[in-house]
TrEMBL record:
Pathway(s) annotated for this protein in UniProt: Cofactor biosynthesis; 7,8-dihydroneopterin triphosphate biosynthesis; 7,8-dihydroneopterin triphosphate from GTP: step 1/1
Gene that this sequence comes from: folE
Upper taxonomic lineage: Bacteria, Pseudomonadati, Bacteroidota, Cytophagia, Cytophagales
Organism: Larkinella knui
Annotated family: Belongs to the GTP cyclohydrolase I family.
Protein name: GTP cyclohydrolase 1
Reactions the enzyme catalyzes: GTP + H2O = 7,8-dihydroneopterin 3'-triphosphate + formate + H(+)
Length: 244
């Protein structure tokens, strides 16, 4: 179900979002309230029919047009490479997590030590982009799981967070997507994710609040059902991080 029962689906040509039923006011409100339509990133079926190189070429042309419309002089040495740089950055870096082919492959290991306590990986850097304004969301993720007999390499936890962050995102959805992936990979329901992040669309525009941050949590399994487990996780997260 889309917000307000309105249609954000694509038109038949597949290239234009249909905002027919949304006026400017509701478009602004939806962005400022950061409403997400579902826990899946809304993507078209033909999302990967174009190659990365073709996407870069097309975005370069469109971004040049945006700069042109803003009145920027694209013959200027400093500006002329910008459309290409932005296009490459979108496709190869900051939105590369849209492509399922880029999802990190997490190899499971037998839990030889029979470690059945909680494992917490905290302070994972989150660099994402708000899907309503295309400006950064910057923060930290804290993830935890209780081994079902299998473990994954620690760096894979960071990679999973980064993969889902490299999409246009809504923080709540990012939190749920990370938790769902951890559950699938680790074959356990006992998973927790907290993200504490700043939204540049809140600090540099709109209400212009430079000091607020947004915390989203997703608890599953024992983290949801058992108060002591949840408290232990929160205690680990709030302890000062080890210094080297
Ligand atoms: Zn935003």
């Amino acid at each position: 179900m889309k917000p307000n029962g309105t249609s954000l689906n694509t038109r038949s040509n597949g290239h234009h979002l249909a905002y027919d039923l949304l006026n400017d006011v509701s478009v602004d409100e939806m962005g400022d309230d950061h409403v997400a339509s579902s826990s899946e990133t809304p993507m078209r079926e033909d999302a990967f029919e174009l190659s990365d190189d073709t996407k870069i070429e097309l975005i370069e042309g469109h971004f040049r047009e945006i700069m042109n419309i803003l009145g920027l002089d694209l013959t200027d040495d400093s500006l002329k490479g910008t459309p290409r740089r932005v296009a490459k950055m979108y496709v190869k870096e900051i939105f590369s997590g849209l492509n399922p082919a880029k999802k990190p492959i997490a190899t499971l290991f037998e839990n030889k030590y029979q470690y059945s306590e909680m494992l917490v990986e905290k302070g994972i850097t989150v660099h994402s982009q708000c899907e309503h304004h295309f400006v950064p969301i910057i923060g930290r993720a804290h993830v935890a799981y209780i081994s079902s007999g299998k473990v994954i390499g620690l760096s894979k936890l960071n990679r999973i967070v980064q993969y889902f962050a490299k999409r246009p995102q809504v923080q709540e959805r990012l939190t749920v997507q990370i938790a769902n992936e951890l559950k699938a990979v680790l074959q356990t329901e006992d998973v927790a994710v907290i993200i504490d992040a700043r939204h540049l669309c809140v600090s540099m525009r709109g209400v212009q609040d430079a000091n607020s941050s947004t915390v989203t949590v997703h608890y599953c399994g024992k983290f949801k059902d058992d108060e002591a487990t949840r408290q232990e996780f929160l205690r680990h997260v709030s302890e000062p991080t080890a210094t080297l």
